[in-house]
Amino acid sequence: MNKVVSDSELRSWENSLPQMAKILRDADLKEDTHVLLEYKLPSTEKRIDFFITGHDWKGKRNALIVELKQWQRAKAAEGDGIVQTFLGGRERETVHPSYQASSYKRYLQNFNESLYTDSTIQLNSCAYLHNYIEDRVKEPLLSEQYRKYLMDSPIYFQFDDRKLAKDIHEQVSEGNGKEIAEEIEQGKIRPSKKLVETVKSLIEGNEEFVLLDEQKVAYEKVRMKYNQMKTKTDMKHVIIIKGGPGTGKSVIGLNLMSYMLDSGAVAEYITPNQAFREILRKKLIGRSGHVEVRDLFKGSASYVHAPEDYYDVLICDEAHRLKEHGHMKKKIEGENQATQIIRSSKVSVFFVDDRQVISKKDIGSFDVIQEEAKKAGPDVHVVELGSQFRCSGSGNYISWLDHLLDIGGEATQLEGDFDFQVVSNPQELVNEIVDKRGGRILAGYAWDWNKKLIDGELPKDVVVEEFDFAMPWNDPNRIDWAIHQDCSYQIGCIHTVQGLEMDYAGVIIGKDLGYDEESDSIIVRREEFKDKGARPAKPKKGQTDPLIDLVRNTYKTLMTRGMKGCYVYCCDEGLARYIRKHM
Asked: What positions does the domain Schlafen group 3-like DNA/RNA helicase occupy (predicted)?
């Protein structure tokens, strides 16, 4: 596997593989039946535990996925295909084993040419819980809510071993599995026609994805460079598209994704922000019901080991959030995530906004991406977006906000259709934004975040004592927080909301941002900024504190999430007076 594995993974093999060996002995198979262990799903970190290939007595070619679990008990949980069991030392929510097996099967049927739905290989899936004794009266894993997944991928418990052996025998008893296994291993990895058509149907004819003015210019630039690359196969291109909040970067990216897939390109859509990635997935899946659409969207740490030019096109949204290396990923000397994306693809597209860098870990600035591209040698092209499609299309509001936060922009009156207000207390903010307008409350990272539940509930970390106000940060287990109905009275942090948009946003500005009357200027208070992972080291004497830009960028990002309006409450009264004066 070319990697060191954990003790827990070794134990899982030691416990599960002898159980499967016994099953195979009982299944009475011919010797040239083939087994693949820890088969890696292409361009993901996921692996199939056990894969067996061969012919049945009718001569049909079969492949069976077996998902192995050491579980001893589980409970039904809320959510489609979700259960609760003991993992990693505590009770956790995870996917039902039948859902997991089915999802791996569907992934291969959508991305491996040898296993598309018109393949001669019949692909099946199941789960085997060899330590789990089924409750014959009321087994949670067999609950009605999981029926569709159980029908697709049956589940076998400890005393179902002979039944599993019999079912395996029926599928692969005649052996001759080598050719099937090799076809699967060597199958070309590209989305199936069905999946491509699904994505195309989601984009075309949908007013939300219509391209306007410079959006169309940027789209055509990428399209032309891709077509040039196809005629000159040794040519690589990097296209950097610069644009502020609400300039339609994601609209361009999704249109490009649809075009590339329809053109037969091997393409993926990258978003470093997990919450943004999940909202995009759910928006598209919700329209299509085609859950495999989610597999086209990847995190930015997915390309560490990808071969050079493996992909035709990689589209990286929110590229300013790229990191040196991914969480729990081994760093490759001389590479960062931008380097890895450029190396892995013939055409790489980066959407970037330097004013949305909000952490010391964010390295994906325009200059860094351009520098990495030049080092790698491909042609570099730059497109700039200017028009505003968020904040009621009010470029005036963006310019006013930039000037207010002292990050550029011209002194201007706040005018236009965008609804901006300063409220006098946080309760009023919740009432106006959540209760009346169905929006979400956001806040700067000026409060600690205690992620452990208290009596089964989220701790109310965001506290404004003078108004007896307290609300929890967004549930870290709900990455779809911004659209989930149960999360209305939770507060989104910058890491959750970057890239997202909503009709109305209410922003609590903590004491990390304030106003100094003597200098008549915005100030940043380092001691009030609580995000230790994002906070840069203190500057040396005479140097400007880099935290100043990060905090100002954070509040600009939060205050530009609203499509129709943004209301703010300031913990610093002087700052509230300063904003009102400039209104």
From this structure: 236-572
